[in-house]
Amino acid sequence: MTEVQWKRELEQSVRDLHTLGVLLDRPELSADPAAESVAREYPVLVPRPFLAKIDKTDPDDPLLAQVCPSIREMEEVPGFTRDPLEEAGAAKTNRCLNKYHGRTLILASDACAVHCRFCFRKHFPKENPGPSPQETIRPDQDGETASEETTPFSAISPMDRVCRQLQHVRCDPGIDEVILSGGDPLTLDNFALNLYVEEIFRISHVKRLRIHTRFPVMIPSRIDSDLSEILRASKRCASYMVVHVNHPGELDDAFREKIGTLIDRGVPIMSQTVLLKKVNDCPGVLRKLFADLVDMRVLPYYLHLLDKISGTSHFEVGQEEARVLMETMVRSLPGYAVPRLVREVPGEKSKSFLF
Predict the structure, then answer these.
(1) Which of 49, 92, 289, 307 has the most CB atoms less than 10 A away?
(2) pLDDT above 50 (res 100)
(3) Checking DSSP bridges between strand 299-304 and strand 352-353, what pairing results, if any?
């Protein structure tokens, strides 16, 4: 599989309500001015491989609910804010988050394979796949703007990006894990991604690399042979991939094949899931999701309570309800198939384990 295919599929993603309605035989989507208003605030982006998994006959399809704008995104609910995790204040350098001891999270790309309507960074600047002349560098921890503030991040050379973001990792021997996130780091092509990986592997005190991505669900062809080679290039560092998957309907044969290829080549795969109302908040759905994942040799890692980002309150599942769901999982699944129920609290030194 070459880079040409996944890049083409990314470019062909649905980016407007009208096309989404036509492809799903749902003309009412493009006739709703309220939904159009929501889409202007946070644009539609749905890859066609994911679109093909949506049941056109089900108006409440749980996959569609994750990507289709809703008028409820305009609701203002107390406690829901534009930066619930206070990440801007946690940035030590541009696009680097150092919230937890020994770990640095790098926002390697602002672009995504999909615009999830519940995304906790939905109000951060986003690029469409490919360079965006409007993108700018965000403030650092002290609120001071970097000297390159007038330079679009996408206009900075890939090597300069990598050097800038890894500088403090090199200087801090207490950091033994680097996490590539975003956006989605796999929107980078293999050349740019390999720059990150090679430079991370050269830092002697870094022992682990973790990549968080939605691509195996959205555009499975992104998992090509070159990517596999990049991730298994180091004998000293361990490379992990964490795949974001929320519903068993997302796990098709293409996902199974591509994830299996990575695992066969020595890249461990874990999953993370966001607990979402009317998407996966029932025992049967979660039980099937986690069982299917372990059958594919993917280890369920985290089940996240929703981060309280403005415009997402209609997805929220309460903490006590989540605990009841977890009790059902523990009774019906082997222990290794049950993820940790977590919530992220700004300023805490780790995620809060709730079950």
Answers:
(1) 289
(2) yes
(3) unpaired
Task: Supply angle C-alpha 83, 94, 212, rounded to 5.
Answer: 65
pLDDT in tens, 246-263: 999 999 999 999 999 999
Whole-angstrom Cα distance, residue 251 to residue 100?
Answer: 31
Cβ atoms 37, 222 nearer than 8 A: no
Report CA-CA distances (Å) from 101 to 90, 97, 151, 245, 318.
Answer: 13, 11, 31, 26, 29
> How many whole angstroms from its chain centre is CA 302?
13
- Coil, helix or strand for 225? helix
* Cβ count within 10 A of residue 296: 16
Q: Is the pLDDT of residue 150 over 70?
A: no
Q: Within 13 Å of residue 324, how many CA atoms lie on the same side as its CB?
A: 9
Burial class (CB in 10 A: 0-12, 13-18, 19+), 304: buried
Structural domains in the chain?
3-74 (no CATH), 87-353 (3.20.20.70)
Do residues 46 and 40 touch, judged by C-beta distance below 8 A? no
Q: Is 121 helix (H, G, I), strand (E, B) or coil?
A: coil
Q: Residue 172: phi, psi to the nearest 5?
A: -120, 100
Cβ neighbours for 95, distance < 8 A, ≥ 6 positions apart: 106, 107, 108, 137, 138, 153, 165
The residues near 297 (Cβ < 8 Å, ≥ 6 apart) are 259, 260, 263, 269
Question: Encoding tokens for residue 151?
Answer: 């330079």
State how far the Cα of 277 lies from the Cα of 60, in Å rounded to an integer.
Answer: 12
- Amino acid identity of 124? F
As a residue count, the chain comes to 355
Say if pTM beats, i.e. exceeds, 0.85. Answer: yes
Residue type, 254: A
Give residue-wise pLDDT tens across range 319-342: 999 999 999 999 999 999 999 999
